[in-house]
Amino acid sequence: MKIEKHAVNHPYKFSIGVNYYNTTSYTCTIELSGPTTHTITVAPGTTGSYGPITPGQYTVGIYTTGPGTYNYRLDGGGSTPTFINNANGHGAVYSINAQTNLTVGITN
């Protein structure tokens, strides 16, 4: 006698998130507006992840409280990593089609 256990069908659940890092000495804020709105506060010298977020077109703002020049990186949505230099330390804004995990970072 052969006994088989059939797998239970689960609906496919697609979710993506935001991986982040901040290697500076200042607080960083990541703001996403699009299908959903999110504000992520990243402490100095930390890495982590946030999510899930709804896939779709987002405007991503990356900001810091620190003065000086910083490199803002946004990678994801099938795009090549983007480095944005800002001499004022105020931040950068970028538009991206988020269909996979995003990586957002700030370094000096």
Secondary structure: elements and pairs:
Elements: E1 16-22, E2 28-33, E3 38-42, E4 46-53, E5 56-64, E6 70-75, E7 82-86, E8 92-98, E9 102-107
Parallel strand pairs: 1-9
Antiparallel strand pairs: 1-4, 2-3, 2-5, 5-8, 6-7, 6-9
Radius of gyration: 18 Å
**SS-based structural class?**
mainly beta
Q: What is the count of distinct domains?
A: 1
Low-confidence residue ranges:
5-12
* Pattern of helices and strands: EEEEEEEEE
| Strand tally | 9
Spatial order of the strands forming the largest sheet: 4-1-9-6-7
Query: Average pLDDT, to the nearest integer?
Result: 83
Question: What is the CA–CA distance across the termini?
Answer: 67 Å
Strand fraction? over 45%
Helix content: under 10%
Helices, by number, come to 0
Shape: globular
Major sheet size, sense and barrel closure: 5 strands, mixed
Fold and architecture overview:
This protein has 108 residues and is mostly beta strands. It has one domain. A 5-stranded mixed sheet has the order 4-1-9-6-7, with no helix packed on it. A hairpin with a 6-residue loop joins β6 and β7. It is globular, with a radius of gyration of 18 Å.
List keywords for this structure.
mainly beta; 108 residues; five-stranded mixed β-sheet; 0% helix; globular
